[in-house]
Amino acid sequence: MIWLIAGLVLVIGVHSLRLVSPGLREQVIARHGAMRWRLLHSGASLVGLVLLIWGYGEARAEPLWLWIPPVWSRHAAALLMLPSFVLLAASLLPGSHIAARLRQPLAASVKIWAFAHLLANGTLADLLMFGSFLAWAVLSFTLLRRREAHLPVPPGSAAGDLKVVLAGVAGWAVFAFWLHGLLIGVRPFG
User: How many domains does the structure of the chain reveal?
Assistant: First the structure.
């Protein structure tokens, strides 16, 4: 469980720098250059992700059950992941009303992802991982929207929305029907 916690601290910590120190990125880039910032940020994120995956895998091998989720919660989680993937696509593809309206579509996507997985899983490792990401996403979404409320809203288009929805649905389908089972070992629909 220690590796899971270390991974969570590193991943969430790196991705919380913008929340706790808004100017840090710009200061590091001004002093050391954008490439060094990218290398440090990406390197720390990658190490954290490896620790998180390893730790979660170890914790799943000997689960400490806190509750037994009902069968319907797996179906609800699979359906909740559809808007999560659409919001993920909105965070990656420019020009949608969805991203413009939410301003923080990635944090909204993580909120839905974490909630869906908390709903469908009942171990201590699940509570630690998905609960931590849910708390981070709620805080990130709220603080960054408040902080950036004075900034102009980027324009969006119906074509941008269509592109985001199609990409999100396609990503969800590929992950739900193939990649989740391959990478995680759990098949949401089978």
Answer: 2
Choose the final residue of a domain: 23, 45, 62. Answer: 62
Q: Which residue has the tokens 């895998």?
A: 57
Shared-domain flag, residues 72 and 156:
yes
Burial classification of residue 146, based on how many CB atoms lie within 10 Å of its CB (0-12 exposed, 13-18 middle, 19 or more buried): exposed
pLDDT of 18 reads 87
Is 46 found in the same domain as 91? no
* CA–CA gap between residue 155 and residue 45 (Å, rounded): 31
Q: Which segments in the chain show pLDDT lower than 70?
A: none
pLDDT in tens, 145-157: 999 888 888 889 9
> In which domain, by residue range, is 155 found?
65-190
pLDDT at position 22 = 86
